[in-house]
């Protein structure tokens, strides 16, 4: 199914009057505060978040997976689904491929299908956390960190292959999430595992094209439960610094122990010019992969507040943005639309923070005023501004309601059936 401009227009119609009234009321208030509405809208429109190719099907846990129907079973169908999201919200103009789950068979065809729905290719992701059917040696005890040189070489070669695939699609970054670790004390040498990982990453880094980035993701636990080789931002930062200027740290919101101050990590990395990527999701307990903004919207706002300030005040390049959540209860496309809206809303809230007065509060140590400034921005209902930015880009005033009115899922089920299954976990 392809969403056309007519589809968007027909579903926007019933919402236009109410939206205009809400937006005009808000715009007047924001202008009184000295904010430039046009500039806010442009910034919101420019924020595009990649959709990972594994997020289009139903996610599962290690206990089970409950399929939803109409899932994309080929890469082309996945691209069509990203096209649907992008047509509705004009905020998701790229797909992030996971290799080997989504290796293109015919590159020209894939590029053409992506161009038809105005989709590009963001960072490519390697996978050495599971064995493939025809794999000669196992990653059971690690990949880039493994004690066995032959296994390390297999994992290095896989990452090089991922770079070659990405080059053919116009990707500009390789994301390495290394699952390697140990489940029991004494299982492996911490020092040796880190050393092996560094050397393996060096070999991959040498293959990185000039205009590419290597994004190093970290995670404190899981799939291993005692230690993870790249457990935290410090370890990732250390490796990125050792590797060189094309290597960066990638922050995944779900990859922290409870109550970690993620916005502070981000500020530190931006100060050092090493924040390379961001994976969005939300969580209550661990790496829960819940919809962005569903549990801790204030934290998401504080994260964007640091990003906005960092864009102004540091030389950190613009990071690669991606949603990294698993949708095991909701329609995956609806979940992605909700995630995208939460991200834009948090960004909008951060954009209206009175940075000048905030700095003054910091200078004069006016703690109460600093809190007032942040909470005032967070509590301002900016949904009409986000809707207007999408509407002006040719998208739906309410992407999720349009999705339902256009009966997209029913249409996909009709075409693909109820048993189709997307590749992934
Ligand atoms: Mn991630």
Radius of gyration: 22 Å
Q: Low-confidence stretches at least 5 residues in length (pLDDT < 50)?
A: none
Compute the separation of the termini in Å. 25 Å
Total E-strand runs: 13
Relevant CATH superfamily: Divalent-metal-dependent TIM barrel enzymes
- Walk across the major sheet and give the strand order: 6-7-9-11-12-13
Summed up, the domain count is 1
- The chain-level mean pLDDT equals 96
Helix-strand pattern = HHHEEEHEHEEHEEHEEHEHEHEHHHHHH
Shape: globular
Bound molecules: manganese (II) ion
Largest sheet: 6 strands, parallel
For this structure, the CATH topology is: TIM Barrel
Number of helices: 16
Strand portion, in percent?
5-15%
Amount of helix: 40-55%
What is the CATH class name?
A: Alpha Beta
Backbone structural class: alpha/beta
Topology:
Blueprint: H1 5-12, H2 16-32, H3 37-46, E1 51-52, E2 60-61, E3 64-65, H4 75-89, E4 94-96, H5 107-116, E5 120-121, E6 124-125, H6 149-169, E7 173-177, E8 181-182, H7 190-206, E9 213-217, E10 227-228, H8 233-243, E11 247-252, H9 262-271, E12 275-280, H10 297-313, E13 320-323, H11 332-351, H12 355-363, H13 367-378, H14 383-392, H15 399-405, H16 408-416
Parallel strand pairs: 1-4, 4-5, 6-7, 7-9, 9-11, 11-12, 12-13
Antiparallel strand pairs: 2-3, 8-10
Helix pairs in contact: 2-14, 3-14, 4-11, 6-7, 9-10, 10-11, 12-13
Bound molecules: manganese (II) ion.
